[in-house]
């Protein structure tokens, strides 16, 4: 585990209780809260401009810092919209990329330019995906290139009010709201839960209006819709070859993950009966630099398993790997009630699809 990951883990642990470190940082969290409320109020009053796309915008984001399963939900909803006859487009900031330009995500575009998650979304769904530092710029470019787009799905962005939205979906994992305090004393980006008392005292600008709430962890931290996560039955090589996971039982495998919660991936592999001789956990969105390659990858004759998100970078870096490098997809399924509530909300925003 890298020093960066150890520091992140220590901070995540501190955020789960109201201990000495959290209490020391609590005054700064009050400043953060004030800034969040003021910024939202400035947008609501029209002092800061908020741009309307002209088509419904659905934002899927976190109230807590760190990954909580937004990208699997984005892909699930995009595929659902496509299956119902809609023509969705996706916008993202493209966290971790080394380019600030507004770009269309294309299959051959390096993840370093567009971000690993936007590239995975495009490869998985085929939907048009645009990235930009300002999400408004990404939406404008997407609509100009694909005017038939009838709904925009925004990967992250609950706290970015320059783009008007028609539906807010908040995603939570097992951490819930941690110690319930705002950054930096706790994990919250904004106050939660949005109680009636808070609205009465501070006004509606104090909290974001959340239309739907989905839990992505194994256990729900509080009331809300739930989802299930499981590994697919087949791993996939760079050339599309499928390798049954069961056929890998008995091999001494190497697993690598550069996601928000690498241990969850390793645990799911073990639960499928696989033997992991070595696991390397890297920071979320890691670029697999030379140090990592020489230290971790390609033990002679050893098969390497990674996540789909990591594969968009590793497959491009090791085109000759063949079946020695395999991505293990995640099957993510929101409960039926969530999809029904999503469809009901969408019907208030869009006319029925004509056949």
Helix % is 25-40%
* CATH C-level label of the largest domain: Alpha Beta
Count of helix runs:
11
Largest sheet: 9 strands, mixed
Residue-averaged pLDDT: 88
Q: Cα distance, first to last residue?
A: 53 Å
Account of the protein in words:
- The strands form 3 sheets. This protein has a 9-stranded mixed sheet, sandwiched between helices. The protein has a 4-stranded parallel sheet with strand order 12-11-13-14. Strands 9-10 form a two-stranded antiparallel ribbon.
- The protein folds into 2 domains: 14-227 and 334-347, Rossmann fold, CATH 3.40.50; 233-328.
- By secondary structure, the chain is of the alpha/beta class.
- Helices cover 34% and strands 20% of the residues.
Describe, in short, the structure shown:
This protein has 355 residues and is α/β, with parallel strands linked by helices. Helix 3 runs parallel beside helix 5.
Features:
355 residues; alpha/beta; Rossmann fold; 2 domains; 9-stranded mixed β-sheet; 4-stranded parallel β-sheet; 11 helices; 15 strands
Chart the SSEs and their pairings.
Blueprint: H1 3-14, H2 20-44, E1 57-62, H3 70-83, E2 88-92, E3 103-104, H4 111-114, H5 116-125, E4 129-131, H6 135-145, E5 151-155, E6 167-172, H7 196-202, E7 212-215, E8 225-231, E9 234-236, E10 242-244, E11 252-257, H8 262-271, E12 275-281, H9 290-296, E13 304-307, H10 308-317, E14 325-328, E15 330-334, H11 336-347
Parallel strand pairs: 1-5, 1-6, 2-4, 2-5, 6-7, 7-8, 11-12, 11-13, 13-14
Antiparallel strand pairs: 3-4, 8-15, 9-10
């Amino acid at each position: 585990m890298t020093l960066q990951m150890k520091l992140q883990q220590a901070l995540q642990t501190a955020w789960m209780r109201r201990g000495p470190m959290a209490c020391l940082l609590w005054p700064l969290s009050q400043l953060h809260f004030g800034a969040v409320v003021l910024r939202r109020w400035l947008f609501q009053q029209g002092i800061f401009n908020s741009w309307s796309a002209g088509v419904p915008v659905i934002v899927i984001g976190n109230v807590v810092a760190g990954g909580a399963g937004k990208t699997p939900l984005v892909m699930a909803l995009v595929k659902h919209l496509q299956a119902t006859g809609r023509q969705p487009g996706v916008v993202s900031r493209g966290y971790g990329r080394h380019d600030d330009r507004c770009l269309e995500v294309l299959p051959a575009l390096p993840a370093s330019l567009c971000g690993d998650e936007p590239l995975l979304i495009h490869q998985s769904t085929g939907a048009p995906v645009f990235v930009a530092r300002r999400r408004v710029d990404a939406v404008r470019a997407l609509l100009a290139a694909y005017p038939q787009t009838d709904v925009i799905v925004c990967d992250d962005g609950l706290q970015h009010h320059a783009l008007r939205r028609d539906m807010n979906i908040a995603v939570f994992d097992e951490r819930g709201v941690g110690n319930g305090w705002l950054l930096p004393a706790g994990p919250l980006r904004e106050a939660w839960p949005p109680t009636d008392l808070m609205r009465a005292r501070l006004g509606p600008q104090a909290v974001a209006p959340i239309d739907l709430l989905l839990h992505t962890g194994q256990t729900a931290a509080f009331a809300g819709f739930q989802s299930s996560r499981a590994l697919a039955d087949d791993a996939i090589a760079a050339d599309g070859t499928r390798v049954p996971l069961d056929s890998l039982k008995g091999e001494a495998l190497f697993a690598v993950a550069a996601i928000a919660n690498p241990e969850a991936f390793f645990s799911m592999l073990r639960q499928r009966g696989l033997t992991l001789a070595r696991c390397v956990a890297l920071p979320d969105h890691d670029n697999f630099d030379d140090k990592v390659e020489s230290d971790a990858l390609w033990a002679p004759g050893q098969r390497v398993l990674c996540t789909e998100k990591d594969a968009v970078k590793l497959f491009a870096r090791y085109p000759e790997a063949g079946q020695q490098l395999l991505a293990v997809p995640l099957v993510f399924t929101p409960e039926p009630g969530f999809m029904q509530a999503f469809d009901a909300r969408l019907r208030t925003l869009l006319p029925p699809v004509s056949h």
